[in-house]
Specification:
mainly alpha, Endonuclease Iii, domain 2, 57% helix, 0% strand
């Protein structure tokens, strides 16, 4: 894919969604870290349902550690692999208190040393909580990057490195959010909605033929819909932290 087409893709995604963010609910970096650990092989919806009550009781490492592994399980038992996740979360709480003064570190090496935290989780936290231009590649982004031709690769790490190398700097911070939302709701694995895809005419391997006019009409509808007054947020949904400037 050439640079002009790549830029056009991100320009359209930005026009349709200027300020994308995670669909996980959180109020501080610690809650985000816990939510991302819980989200492995689980939907954001299921995680948000579990953390709605959990974070009311325990929104710091101290409180969650006091709740204990068994107490944590009671809140997250509807989430897949909840036993392993409970063990890892209690372990990372202990390490945060012992090695980081109860604060979530803003360095990749320190994050990846925590139980249950891999490269993808670290990337999400670094990007969303600390404003760093990292790109977390999950199954949705891996599929979109390969299907569209944005950053084809055989492994998650290969795709991540290609996206970091080829994505214009002005789009890097939001790249992860745009692509994951596009993969989740439009460029789906089994039934991609090419007819309503705003970048279909720029895709290297569209599943269905779509004209540029159709894509532009869809973009116009997205922009118009964005201008409508937003509905009040549900009571359990919390506001995200203001984005910090990238160092």
């Amino acid at each position: 894919m050439n640079p002009a087409k790549r830029r056009a893709i991100f320009e359209r995604l930005r026009a349709a969604n200027p300020k994308p963010t995670t669909e996980l609910h959180y109020r501080n970096p610690f809650e985000l870290l816990v939510a991302v650990v819980l989200s492995a092989q689980a939907t954001d919806v299921s995680v948000n349902k579990a953390t709605a009550s959990l974070f009311q009781l325990a929104d710091t490492p101290e409180k969650l550690l006091a709740l204990g592994e068994d107490g944590l399980k009671q809140h997250i038992r509807t989430i897949g692999l909840y036993r392993t996740k409970a063990k890892n979360i209690i372990g990372l709480c202990r390490q945060l208190l012992e090695k980081h003064g109860g604060q979530v570190p803003a360095e990749r090496e320190a994050l990846e040393a925590l139980p249950g935290v891999g490269r993808k989780t670290a990337n999400v936290v670094l990007n969303t909580a600390f404003g760093q231009p990292t790109i977390a590649v999950d199954t949705h982004i891996f599929r979109v990057a390969n299907r569209t031709g944005l950053a084809p690769g055989k492994t998650v790490l290969e795709v991540e490195k290609k996206l970091l190398r080829t994505t214009p700097d002005e789009f890097k911070h939001d790249c992860h959010h745009w692509l994951i939302l596009h993969g989740r709701y439009v460029c789906k694995a089994r039934t991609p909605d090419c007819a309503h895809c705003l970048i279909a005419d720029l895709c290297d391997h569209p599943v269905l033929p779509v004209s540029q006019g159709t894509a532009q009409i869809h973009l116009a509808k997205k922009t118009k819909a964005r201008a409508k007054p937003a509905k009040p947020a549900a009571r359990h949904q919390v506001k995200t932290q203001p984005r910090k400037a990238t160092a």
